[in-house]
Structure formats: structure tokens, C-alpha cells
Write a sequence for this structure.
């Protein structure tokens, strides 16, 4: 955490409720912040996800350190604010191969494009699905609705 | 005359007798050797995260059960603990509830490992251990039914404790034997330790043919394991002694004594042995819990408001599930529904290992490796 | 009737007898198939702590009939791009060798359908057909899984054929004849401890392993490894065409068990009821040293029913023991099948060529040396006081 404070003095730091550290960096410094954590020993990427505040998206990358001797390990969450439409951000899949599919899922669900990702396709939804990005708050399901069957009683005649 | 070998692309499709669920593996073969392997998922996507945003905090708990449906309580634990942390100390979970949670988690770990090993042994060709695992899981199911009312998907944990206390007489006494394995918890633990694990060791672990099939296959180095986000038995099989129960204790694991088994080579056989040894350690933990639970009655549910509205905040809670690190990122906006729930499942991350581990091996090894990674599609696709 | 028979030209007589024998063999093979199928499911259920078929008939025992009926009425799904001649002929080519093997097996003393004097070589020749059938069905199915399965199958079966035949050569050396009925007769004359199982124990074990591989049974069933290749070379077959493959596989199993029983376990030789009574009586009398009423009663009872030792009764006794031995070996095969995991193709080839083949060659070598030594030195007598033990007596 201190190493991050040194390198990015004007980023916003915070603490999550269970002691984890969160850092809000501007988009241009994202890759550098991740690399800085990597060199400090945080070589394990736990998850890459995004949060949809109604006016913007926030990309969250959680990095951890795997040190068998450490008890009470702290996770660093690097956050980046992105616009809701057409957001792009450099990919960390080269540095953290484990983040590959997490980034694909974030693209699938939120529409954030990762530059430099080896295989940016939809992962959980069908490959060429045109229905949008489901986890956005203003997502509207455009699939045709099936009529609901309403049964009134035990027998149809009732 | 030139000889050209042509690669064939086979599709171990979503419908496949290998028991791992709806997973599609695209494999390119040169003769019998794999040159490229790519999994394709999404066949079991049930929109858990989107659903969670429209339900109340308590209503999400049954949905978390259904991600890793083979060890449901660990998922519930992750979610419930995350929400409890959001309350920042306003909810104090009674100690008895914590011990019950730990005990249920470890019971789930044992049954989940039994099934993982059974299905894996069946893929490798030994069909009998699969049925033996069901014999033992049935006993566990009877116990779970008596405790929680359900056999496989429980909806047992609540925010603030557990739903109900253990029924009378289910703990039993330390001298319970195999005949009580489906009636008392002590009986079950003794049965697993003294009968089931030696039987598995004798039948599969020490079997030369099984060792031929799994030793040296799918070797994952420690650096690769960490870089690819592996956790749980996959990470420990590669030699990294990392267990969230010890390195980042949650519930009351810091009060319990147990070891963390670690492999040496990172091949499939090590991952098998790590799982067997973890079952032994789980038995140890359960015994400690049972001793405490038998002597300390008390409440099992804290006083919580009827409508749960955690204060605004975010939390990322990671626990050691049966298959690896299960984590839950919850964002709360102060309302009765969670603003965002992100479920980090270990099997999703582990499937990324398939393109790394499979090339260079034979077709038969692809199945052995898939079994050793131990995926549950409910968790992969959510 | 008899006059009608004798009026027929001899050629027609031979043909009709042959037809009759063939029909009986076919019926025997299919009856065995039904029993072994049922036994397979019940034994596997017993090993796996469950019940097996339970509803059809008493305790599920007529399940195979229900299965066969279902297979008959199933639709023949014909894929478009198959190589039609290969695809259609493969089941028959697979079934044929299974039946043909039964022609030379002695069921009782003198009860062989066709007592060829090249018995063993005939078996070795027939086994080659299996490989062709596997290959035809795999290639003709136009399916990558089938092709993979049949490639594996062809490689496996060819490798283990060599070892299989070599493991039998030791028995041939000891019996001095290739004719199966001669081999069994010699074992009958040598008594229980002279069965070729004991001197040829290495050959027997190699034969067991090689026959499991030849039959594509676990631990060598990677040809139709369910969890990898769906169903291997018979993926694209449905209905009774697939049923043919199943019948062929089970009849093969029984056939190879029958060959093992004839070559190593003494075929149809075994005590009949009078023999048992005489034996018990003698034991109780301690071979005449201490005559007592019970022993004498047993011996006289044996005398009374001594007719059970001749003629048709002897044939029935022989057949009983033969079938008993076959089913012991089948049970052994099933036991192994449900216990051991599957080996991989390259490990299988290693096992066959690098281990079993040298061992069977060693067995031949050893048999030759011991037999020579036994003949030269008359069984190498060792005197222990008044008793002379003849070592290597087994190899004479």
C-alpha cells in the first residue's frame, strides 16, 4: 500500500469494510498501477469486474499476494472510472494470465473493451449475441416474452 | 513422397458421457496427441448476478447454493459472511452458529471431494469408486436432511447465524461406529476416517495403473498456478502452501487445529492425494467442532432486523471453498436489495488452465486433467 | 428313420450333421450370451453395492430378453456418408470369429464339433478377424470418434494376439499336440495337479492379461472408453447392428474363457459323483488303513451308482465341469473389470510389447529346458528315505 502511495500520490485511497485497500486511479495510470503491484509481489489476480453506477462504470481489479507465511493477507482493489458507452482500457491478460477469462466476462456483461486482449469474445453468452450487455442497469431484455400460464384452481373448470 | 499429418478437430461436446456437466472442449489432435485445447462454456448460465440485484439479501441465499451445487454450504458461507461484514459489526453472530457453520463447511468439503474423486476415477476407467462415493454421500445426505431439512441444496445459513440448531442426538458420541454413519455426526466422521479413506487409498491411490495414468500428467508449476489464478487443491498440488482458512482466517478457523496438505510435483496424482489428505484434515476439524458443540449450547441466530439494509459500502470476501477460492464482491447502496453481487468462482478460473496443460498429452490424459481440476459447471457459468 | 438316414448319400449325411452341429453351437453361444450378459450386470451391481436389474422377471433375470426385444424393434439409423459395404458388413465380420472358435472346443470326452488337428493354429487364425471387424466399423462410420477408437483397437488387438498365441505354445509343447481334445485328454490323465495350470503358471497369467486386452475389457477397454470416445468404433451403430457387436463381444469372452479352461484348467475333466463318493470314502478310510463303517458305506454307495461314470452321464459330468470352469474365469474377468482403471494407449503398447512378449518367450524357453531335463533325468528323482520324489515330474 505504501509503495502505491508513493507512486500515485494523487489517487484516491480507501479501505473496504474487511480491511482491503482500494485505489481509484485515472485510466491512463491503470496499467502502471497494476504493474507496480505485480512487481511488489501481488502476482495473483483474484477477479476483474465492474460496477455500474448509473452515470459511469467502475472497473475493479483485485490483486492478491500468495505468501504462505502471511496471515491476514490484504487484497488490493484497483478501480478505474470509465464511461458507460464505448469504454476501453488496456488488458492485463499478458501479465496475469488468470485474468483472461475474467476480462472476457466483464466485456460480455458490461461492454468494456480490453485493448490487447488475445481473445476478446463473449464467454458466458453465445458468441455473436446481439442483445446487449446484461449487467448494465438499463439493460432491457429484448427476447420475445412467452405468455404466462395462469392457473386458477385445481381443475380448469373452477 | 511427402507425408503430411493432418490435425483433426474433435469436439467433446456439451453432451458427453464424462460426468462434468455441460462443457464443450474443442481439441485438435495429431494422431492421439493433443496440439490445442479450448473450452467453451456458458451452457449453464442462469444469470445469478443479475437476479441477485432484484432480490432481497436473504432471498439471494438459495441462489448461492446453486452455483457450486455439490458443496452448497460453502457458497452460502461466503455470501452470508460478506453481508455480515457489510454491517460492520452491528450483527454479531453467536459462537455456536459459527461452529455449526464450520462443521457444515467441512462436511461439505468431505462429500464434495468424494464426488470429485469418484467422478475422476470413473473417467480414468475405474467405475466402482464412483458408486462407492454415492454410498457415502447418501449417508451424508441423511445427516444433512436431519439437520437442515434438505439433502443437497440447503438454504440453511442466514445473515446472523443459521436457521435452526442441530437436532437432538445428531452429534452422537466419539465411540459411534459405522452402523451409525447415517444417524450421528460422530459415526459419520469415524466411518470416513477409518473405513472410507483407507478403502479409497487401497482401491485407487495405491493402484499402479492409476498411478501410471496420473503421475507426470498435467504438470502445473507453482509460478504458473499463481499466475493463472489457481487456488485450492490445484494450487496446493503444485507445492504452494496457501489455504485461506489459515492465511486469511474467517469464521472461527483460527481457533482450530489442522494441517494443510501440499503436493510436490503439480501433476494429477498430487492433486488427488491432496484431496484425500484434505478429507482427513476435515475429519479432524469436525471432531474439534463436535466436541465444542456437545458442550456449549446457546443461541444460533443473532437479532437482526426484519428487512436487512446494510449501510452503504463494498466488500470482497474470500473463503476456501471445496474447489478453491470462492469470493463474493458485494456492493450495497443502503437498500434492501444488493446493488451488485459478483461471484468469483474457482472453477471458472481453473478452466483457463486447460489450454495450458493439455497440449502434448494424449486424448485420455485430457480427461484425466479435466477430472483433476474438478469443475462444477454451475459454478463456472453461474 | 435309421433306414432313411442310411439311404442318403454320404456327402449329404456329412452336410446334415455339420448343419446340426453348427445350429447347436449357435444356440449354445447365444444362450451363453444371455447368461453372461445377465451375470455381468448382476455381478457388477454386487461389486458396486447396488441391485442391478430388478423388475423384469424374478429378481430381474429375464432382463436380457427384454433388452434383445428392444434391440430388435429399434430403428436402424443410417448415416449418410458411411462407406456402405464396410459399415454394413462389420457387425457380421465381428460375430463370425466368435462363433467359429467354438467348433474345436471339446465339451466332453469325444464331444467336439470339429476335431481339427491344427486346433491352436486355427484359433490364432480366427482371431485375426476381430481386428478387421474393428477397423471396418471404425473407418466405415465416417466419424472421428469411431476412427480414433478403431485405430486404438487395431493397434491393441494386433499387439496382444502375438503374445496370446505365444503364451499357449508352452501348453502345446507339454502336450505334444495341437489338437484341443488331445490336450484336454492328457490333462485328464494327469489328474488335478497335473493340469497345465501349474507347470504353465506364467503362461496362464500372460494368457489372462493378453485375453483381456484382446477382448477389449478393462483395464484395456480404451477402444470404447466411454468417458473419452462416447462409444468408440460402434458409436454409429444402432438397433440390432449394435446388438451384434455386443453379442460378438460377449460370445468372444465366453470363447476365450473356454479356450483357457481347455488349455490350462483341464477342460471337461473333473470328478463325477461316484468319484467323489469313492474319494471321500477312501479319505475316511485313510486309504484302507483304518476301515470304518462310514467310509465303507460311501465306497459302496459309489459302487452302486458307478453307472454315472460312463456313457451319457460321463458326458454330462464333463460338460458340467467345463461350464463351471468357464464361469469361474468369466467371474474373474468381471471382477478385474470393475476394479481396475484403464491404461492409456502408449502404456498398453509398452505393456504388450516390452513386458508380456518377453515373458511369454521366456516361458517357452523355460518349458523347453525343464521338459528336456525331466526326460533326460527321468524326473530328477530325490530320495528321502524310502520315498522318492520326482521333481520336474510335472514337466514330463
Amino acid at each position: 500500500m505504501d509503495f502505491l502511495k508513493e507512486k500515485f500520490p494523487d489517487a484516491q485511497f480507501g479501505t473496504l469494510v474487511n480491511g482491503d485497500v482500494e485505489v481509484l486511479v485515472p485510466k491512463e495510470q491503470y496499467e502502471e498501477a497494476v504493474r507496480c503491484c505485480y512487481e511488489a509481489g501481488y502476482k495473483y489476480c483474484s477477479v476483474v469486474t465492474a460496477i455500474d453506477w448509473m452515470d459511469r462504470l467502475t472497473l475493479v481489479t483485485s490483486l492478491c499476494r500468495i505468501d504462505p507465511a502471511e496471515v491476514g493477507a490484504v487484497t488490493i482493489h484497483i478501480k478505474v472510472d470509465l464511461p458507460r458507452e464505448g469504454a476501453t482500457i488496456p488488458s492485463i491478460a499478458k501479465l496475469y494470465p488468470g485474468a483472461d477469462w475474467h476480462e472476457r466476462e466483464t466485456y460480455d456483461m458490461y461492454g468494456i473493451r480490453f485493448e490487447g486482449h488475445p481473445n476478446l469474445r463473449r464467454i458466458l453468452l453465445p458468441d455473436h449475441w446481439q442483445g446487449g450487455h446484461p449487467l448494465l442497469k438499463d439493460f432491457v431484455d429484448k427476447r420475445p416474452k412467452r405468455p404466462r400460464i395462469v392457473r386458477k384452481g385445481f381443475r380448469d373448470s373452477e | 513422397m511427402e507425408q503430411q499429418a493432418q490435425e483433426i478437430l474433435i469436439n467433446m461436446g456439451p453432451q458427453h458421457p464424462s460426468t462434468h456437466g455441460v462443457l464443450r472442449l474443442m481439441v485438435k489432435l495429431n494422431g492421439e496427441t493433443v496440439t490445442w485445447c479450448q473450452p467453451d462454456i456458458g451452457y449453464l448460465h442462469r444469470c445469478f448476478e443479475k437476479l441477485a440485484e432484484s432480490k432481497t439479501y436473504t432471498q439471494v441465499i438459495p441462489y448461492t447454493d446453486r452455483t457450486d451445487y455439490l458443496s452448497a454450504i460453502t457458497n452460502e458461507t461466503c455470501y452470508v459472511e460478506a453481508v455480515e461484514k457489510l454491517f460492520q459489526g452491528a450483527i454479531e453472530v453467536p459462537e455456536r452458529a459459527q461452529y455449526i457453520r464450520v462443521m457444515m463447511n467441512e462436511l461439505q468439503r468431505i462429500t464434495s471431494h468424494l464426488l470429485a474423486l469418484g467422478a475422476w476415477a470413473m473417467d480414468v476407467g475405474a467405475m466402482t469408486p464412483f458408486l462407492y462415493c454415492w454410498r457415502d454421500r447418501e449417508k451424508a445426505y441423511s445427516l444433512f436432511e436431519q439437520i437442515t431439512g434438505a439433502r443437497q441444496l440447503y438454504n440453511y445459513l442466514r445473515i446472523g447465524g443459521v436457521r435452526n440448531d442441530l437436532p437432538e442426538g445428531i452429534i452422537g458420541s466419539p465411540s459411534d461406529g459405522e452402523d451409525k454413519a447415517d444417524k450421528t455426526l460422530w459415526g459419520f466422521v469415524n466411518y470416513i476416517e477409518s473405513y472410507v479413506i483407507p478403502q479409497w487409498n487401497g482401491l485407487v491411490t495405491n493402484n499402479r495403473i492409476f498411478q501410471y495414468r496420473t503421475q507426470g500428467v498435467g504438470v502445473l508449476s507453482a509460478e504458473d498456478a499463481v499466475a493463472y489464478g489457481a487456488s485450492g487443491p490445484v494450487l496446493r498440488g503444485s507445492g504452494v502452501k496457501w489455504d485461506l482458512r489459515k492465511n486469511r482466517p474467517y469464521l472461527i478457523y483460527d481457533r482450530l487445529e489442522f494441517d494443510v496438505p501440499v503436493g510436490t510435483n503439480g501433476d494429477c496424482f498430487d492433486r488427488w492425494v491432496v484431496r484425500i489428505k484434505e478429507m482427513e484434515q476435515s475429519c479432524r476439524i469436525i471432531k474439534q467442532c463436535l466436541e465444542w458443540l456437545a458442550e456449549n449450547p446457546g443461541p444460533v441466530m443473532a437479532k437482526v432486523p426484519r428487512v436487512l439494509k446494510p449501510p452503504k459500502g463494498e466488500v470482497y470476501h474470500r473463503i476456501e471453498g471445496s474447489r478453491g477460492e470462492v469470493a463474493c464482491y458485494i456492493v450495497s447502496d443502503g437498500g434492501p436489495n444488493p446493488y451488485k453481487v459478483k461471484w468469483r468462482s474457482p472453477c471458472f478460473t481453473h478452466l483457463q488452465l486447460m489450454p495450458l496443460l493439455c497440449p502434448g498429452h494424449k486424448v485420455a490424459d485430457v480427461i484425466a486433467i479435466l477430472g483433476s481440476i474438478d469443475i462444477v459447471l454451475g459454478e463456472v457459468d453461474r | 428313420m435309421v433306414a432313411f438316414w442310411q439311404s442318403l448319400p454320404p456327402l449329404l449325411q456329412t452336410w446334415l450333421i455339420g448343419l446340426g452341429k453348427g445350429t447347436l453351437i449357435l444356440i449354445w453361444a447365444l444362450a451363453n450370451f444371455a447368461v453372461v450378459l445377465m451375470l455381468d450386470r448382476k455381478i457388477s451391481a454386487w461389486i458396486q453395492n447396488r441391485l442391478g436389474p430388478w423388475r423384469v422377471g424374478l429378481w430381474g433375470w429375464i432382463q436380457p430378453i427384454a433388452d434383445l426385444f428392444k434391440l430388435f424393434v429399434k430403428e436402424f439409423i443410417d448415416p449418410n456418408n458411411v462407406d456402405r459395404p464396410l459399415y454394413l458388413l462389420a457387425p457380421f465380420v465381428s460375430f463370425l470369429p466368435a462363433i467359429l472358435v467354438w467348433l474345436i472346443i471339446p465339451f466332453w470326452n469325444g464331444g467336439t464339433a470339429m476335431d481339427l488337428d491344427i486346433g491352436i493354429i486355427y484359433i490364432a487364425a480366427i482371431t485375426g478377424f476381430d481386428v478387421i471387424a474393428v477397423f471396418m466399423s471404425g473407418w466405415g462410420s465416417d466419424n472421428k470418434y469411431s476412427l480414433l477408437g478403431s485405430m486404438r483397437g487395431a493397434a491393441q488387438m494386433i499387439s496382444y494376439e502375438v503374445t496370446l498365441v505365444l503364451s499357449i505354445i508352452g501348453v502345446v509343447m507339454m502336450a505334444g499336440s495341437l489338437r484341443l481334445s488331445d490336450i484336454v485328454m492328457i490333462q485328464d490323465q494327469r489328474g488335478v495337479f497335473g493340469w497345465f495350470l501349474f507347470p504353465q503358471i506364467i503362461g496362464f497369467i500372460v494368457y489372462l492379461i493378453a485375453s483381456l486386452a484382446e477382448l477389449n475389457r478393462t483395464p484395456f477397454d480404451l477402444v470404447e472408453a466411454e468417458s473419452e470416445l462416447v462409444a468408440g468404433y460402434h458409436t454409429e451403430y444402432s438397433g440390432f447392428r449394435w446388438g451384434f457387436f455386443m453379442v460378438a463381444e460377449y460370445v468372444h469372452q465366453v470363447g476365450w474363457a473356454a479356450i483357457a479352461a481347455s488349455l490350462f484348467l483341464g477342460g471337461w475333466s473333473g470328478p463325477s459323483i461316484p468319484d467323489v463318493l469313492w474319494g471321500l470314502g477312501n479319505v475316511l478310510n485313510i486309504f484302507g488303513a483304518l476301515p470304518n463303517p462310514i467310509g465303507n458305506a460311501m465306497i459302496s454307495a459309489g459302487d452302486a451308482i458307478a453307472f454315472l461314470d460312463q456313457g451319457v452321464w460321463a458326458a454330462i459330468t464333463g460338460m458340467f465341469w467345463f461350464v463351471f470352469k468357464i464361469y469361474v474365469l468369466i467371474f474373474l474377468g468381471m471382477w478385474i473389470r470393475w476394479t481396475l482403471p484403464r491404461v492409456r494407449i502408449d502404456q498398453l503398447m509398452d505393456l504388450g510389447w516390452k513386458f508380456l512378449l518377453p515373458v511369454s518367450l521366456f516361458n517357452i524357453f523355460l518349458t523347453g529346458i525343464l521338459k528336456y531335463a525331466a526326460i533326460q533325468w527321468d524326473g530328477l528323482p530325490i530320495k528321502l528315505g524310502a520315498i522318492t520324489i520326482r521333481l520336474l515330474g510335472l514337466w514330463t
Observations:
- Chain B has a mean pLDDT of 88.
- Chain B touches chain C through 32 residues (CB under 8 Å).
- The beta strands of chain B are 8-12, 24-30, 33-40, 157-158, 161-162, 313-320, 325-332, 340-344.
